[in-house]
Amino acid sequence: MPVAPRISGAPPAPARPVFLAGDQLELFVKEDLTLNGSYLVREGGYIVIPRAGRVTVAGLSREEAEPRVREFLLKTQLKEATVIVERTPSVANSTAVGGGGAATASIPRVLIYITGSVPRTGGHAIPVPPGKTVGVYEALLISGGLGKFATLDKVEIFRFDANGRRKKSVIDMRPIMKGEAEDPGIAEGDIINVPEKVFGF
């Protein structure tokens, strides 16, 4: 009987990193800013969300944890929930935006989170050369640009204050894009939300 030839397939794709006990999970919920912050994944594999309770995230990737947390919040306290979940990684992570190649490996990075009307939501480690400043508009371009229906005059920035609480500011991107206004610099942990235009019918 002939022996079937041995076919060597392509190497398996690397597994997505998953949350484990002891990890820090960064949560952003657009509809309820009081829920935003860093949560410890406890020994039981869950995080404790205020007023909601425990939700298990251990063994889940970021892409799997986001719908799990969203479903949990919809069941417990919110009618709408726009959720971003991130592990709090080293900003030198090799999978960061920019490729992490030899030319950029030594450049410090600032970790920000982008949501709303953009092509690529989630966490982005933006390269910031020493002595330089990367602005909000510049960071949005680096991370994939703006959505077709982005509301440019009401871009929201959530930034930690001196007390560790996120404060919201709103900027108008239009004069920045025209070169008529300064592009405010990004900071570690910023959440940038680009609202989508609402069309009436």
Question: Would you spell out the secondary-structure blueprint of this structure?
Answer:
Layout: E1 24-29, E2 37-40, E3 46-49, E4 53-56, H1 62-76, E5 83-87, E6 109-116, E7 122-127, H2 136-142, E8 155-160, E9 166-171, H3 173-177, E10 191-194
Parallel strand pairs: 6-10
Antiparallel strand pairs: 1-2, 1-5, 3-4, 6-7, 8-9, 8-10
Q: What does this protein structure show overall?
A:
This protein is an alpha+beta fold. The chain folds into 2 domains: 24-87, wza like fold (2-Layer Sandwich), CATH 3.30.1950.10; 109-194, Outer membrane lipoprotein wza domain like (Outer membrane lipoprotein wza fold like), CATH 3.10.560. The protein contains 3 helices and 10 strands; from the N terminus they run ββββαβββαββαβ. It has helices at residues 62-76, 136-142, 173-177, and strands at 24-29, 37-40, 46-49, 53-56, 83-87, 109-116, 122-127, 155-160, 166-171, 191-194. A 5-stranded mixed beta sheet has the order 7-6-10-8-9, covered by helices on one side. A 3-stranded antiparallel beta sheet has the order 2-1-5, covered by helices on one side. A two-stranded antiparallel ribbon has the order 3-4. The longest helix is centred in the middle third of the chain and has 15 residues, at 62-76. The radius of gyration is 20 Å and the shape is globular.
Number of strands: 10
Overall geometry: globular
Give me the number of helical elements.
3
- The strand order across the widest sheet is 7-6-10-8-9
Q: What are the secondary-structure elements, in order, as H or E?
A: EEEEHEEEHEEHE
Q: Terminal Cα separation, in Å?
A: 70 Å
Pfam family, one: Poly_export
Keywords: Signal
Protein name: Polysaccharide export protein N-terminal domain-containing protein
InterPro entries: Poly_export, Poly_export_N
